[in-house]
């Protein structure tokens, strides 16, 4: 059943009223866009240039003052080798002899391509392939290193392949993929636990350190499948995907009878430590990776996990427009604060909506089209509306019933409106865009 929890609650009359209201709102927004207000051409150009200016301000200063260290400290124009500090709130076990992994450069590769700067992209790729090594005595957070470094290398590789004809002299020979594979193989010892749940911390050179903490978070175990899965598909070495999937399945098996998970757990015993959880810190990307894994790999298993987890969140954490924390065992509210990391949730809902029940294939396609276009252009909007009208006529002629079509329109327009909240998580959307559009080709689906 792929019905969002609120879909069948709308009584027909109320449903029509809402649909009409949305139509009116959307038509108004589109008119504003056409006449130059709102997201009209002038404003879009202004914002485009502002984004370029901001990107190059950050990138150029990083390259000048911090590269090849990990990150720029902008006030002092110095650097920090932060890979071993990420997620390390008490700054424990910091390495003495680690000079950075050019982390910001790796993370900027995909942005350089999106912004059309292939020359700089190529320069970065060649530097990394000649100079980056992971044979360093540094204890790093598996989750952070996965999403930032491994993810950056893999998306860089996919883009380099995609644009290989624009790159000079065929100098790109999968070097980023080789780096990604080297890094991924250093992750594997973290998974060697009785439960298959990975340690949160690993030393890149020496593996799991003596007396390493066995406590980790739900995000730490449940946000690995995209990068490690892609690495397996790209290299043909199934170990990465298998390790991440085993951890995810184990984590999912630890859910309560309410389909809720906790926030922290022990990787040796597979027992929860913190039973209270929400959709913010420590858990957030677990939900995000479930739906993205479904989009990327197409396996129903990810959909089923996502759908059950999603419904449980809506049922137990949601209170009006707010999401609080609750005890996974009882569903009773524990903490009532709103936290910044929860901001990704509307974006996740938009990603999930195209897969909910009751949408016709054409509508799914339209929503995907609309979702994976960074800003809704007026042209897209009108195209969509025309297609909708065409399909209403077609459906009516074929006796499919008007309600079904209106429901589709309702969802499409709802998505457009919800999409504005995605601006909160542009990075996530962009990565999703590339994962979705580019990797589908690589995976041959
Ligand atoms: C890091 O830089 C220092 C100072 O330049 C150097 O002595 C050390 O060998 C470098 N460490 C590594 C692992 O390259
Ligand atoms: C690419 O980036 C480099 C470094 O910031 C800059 O010098 C160059 O002008 C950029 N090229 C384009 C086409 O934007
Ligand atoms: C690798 O680093 C060295 C030292 O910084 C530099 O001279 C060299 O040009 C780099 N390699 C590439 C391909 O950029
Ligand atoms: C690990 O813990 C044991 C027992 O507490 C202690 O004797 C040993 O020194 C610790 N090892 C390290 C490397 O901290
Ligand atoms: C029109 O509707 C029929 C019945 O649902 C469907 O089979 C057909 O593909 C539709 N035509 C187009 C062009 O979408």
Automatic annotation (TrEMBL):
Keywords: Endoplasmic reticulum, Glycoprotein, Glycosidase, Hydrolase, Signal. It comes from the Eukaryota. The keyword Isomerase does not apply. Residues 1-31 form the signal peptide. Its EC number is 3.2.1.-. It is found in: Endoplasmic reticulum. It is an enzyme of class 3 (hydrolase). One of its GO terms (molecular function) is calcium ion binding. One of its GO terms (biological process) is carbohydrate metabolic process. SUPFAM superfamilies: Seven-hairpin glycosidases. GO terms for cellular component: endoplasmic reticulum quality control compartment; membrane. The keyword Glycoprotein applies. Its main location: endoplasmic reticulum. PANTHER family: ER DEGRADATION-ENHANCING ALPHA-MANNOSIDASE-LIKE PROTEIN 1, ER DEGRADATION-ENHANCING ALPHA-MANNOSIDASE-LIKE PROTEIN 2. Belongs to the glycosyl hydrolase 47 family. This is alpha-1,2-Mannosidase. It comes from Oryza meyeriana var. granulata. The lineage of its organism: Eukaryota, Viridiplantae, Streptophyta, Embryophyta, Tracheophyta.
């Amino acid at each position: 059943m792929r019905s969002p929890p609120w879909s069948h609650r709308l009584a027909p009359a109320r449903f029509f009223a809402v649909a009409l209201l949305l139509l009116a709102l959307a038509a108004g927004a589109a008119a504003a866009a056409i006449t130059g207000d709102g997201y009209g051409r002038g404003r879009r150009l202004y914002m485009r240039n502002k984004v370029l200016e901001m990107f190059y301000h950050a990138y150029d200063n990083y390259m000048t003052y911090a590269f090849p260290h990990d990150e720029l400290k902008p006030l002092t124009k110095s650097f920090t080798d932060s890979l071993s500090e990420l997620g390390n709130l008490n700054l424990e076990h910091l390495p003495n002899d680690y000079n950075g992994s050019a982390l910001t450069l790796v993370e900027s590769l995909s942005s350089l391509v999106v912004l059309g700067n292939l020359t700089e992209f190529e320069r970065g790729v060649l530097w990394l392939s000649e100079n980056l090594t992971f044979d360093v005595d540094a204890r790093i957070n598996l989750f952070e290193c996965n999403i930032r470094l491994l993810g950056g290398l893999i998306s860089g590789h996919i883009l380099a392949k995609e644009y290989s004809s624009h790159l000079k002299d065929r100098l790109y020979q999968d070097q980023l993929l080789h780096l990604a594979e080297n890094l991924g193989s250093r992750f594997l010892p973290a998974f060697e636990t009785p439960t298959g749940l990975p340690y949160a911390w690993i030393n890149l050179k020496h593996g799991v350190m003596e007396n390493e903490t066995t406590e980790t978070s739900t995000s730490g175990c449940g946000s690995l499948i995209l990068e490690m899965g892609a690495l397996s598909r790209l290299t043909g070495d199934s170990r990465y995907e298998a390790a991440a999937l085993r951890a995810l399945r184990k984590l999912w098996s630890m859910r309560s009878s309410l389909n809720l998970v906790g926030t922290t757990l022990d990787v040796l015993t597979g027992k929860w430590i913190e039973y209270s959880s929400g959709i913010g810190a420590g858990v957030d990307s677990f939900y995000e990776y479930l739906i993205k894994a479904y989009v990327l790999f197409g396996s129903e298993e990810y959909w089923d996990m996502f759908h059950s987890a999603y419904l449980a969140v809506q049922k137990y954490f949601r209170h009006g427009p707010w999401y609080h924390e609750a005890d996974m065992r009882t569903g009773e509210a524990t903490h009532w604060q709103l936290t910044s990391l929860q901001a990704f949730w509307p974006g996740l809902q938009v990603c999930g909506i195209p897969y909910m029940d009751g949408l016709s294939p054409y509508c799914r396609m339209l929503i995907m089209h609309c979702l994976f276009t960074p800003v809704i252009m007026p042209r897209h909007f009108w195209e969509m509306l025309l297609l909708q009208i065409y399909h209403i006529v077609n459906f009516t002629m074929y006796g499919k019933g008007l309600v079904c079509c209106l429901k589709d329109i309702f969802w499409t327009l709802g998505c457009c409106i919800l999409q504005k909240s995605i601006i909160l998580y542009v990075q996530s959307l962009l990565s999703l865009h590339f994962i979705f559009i580019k990797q589908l080709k690589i995976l041959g689906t």
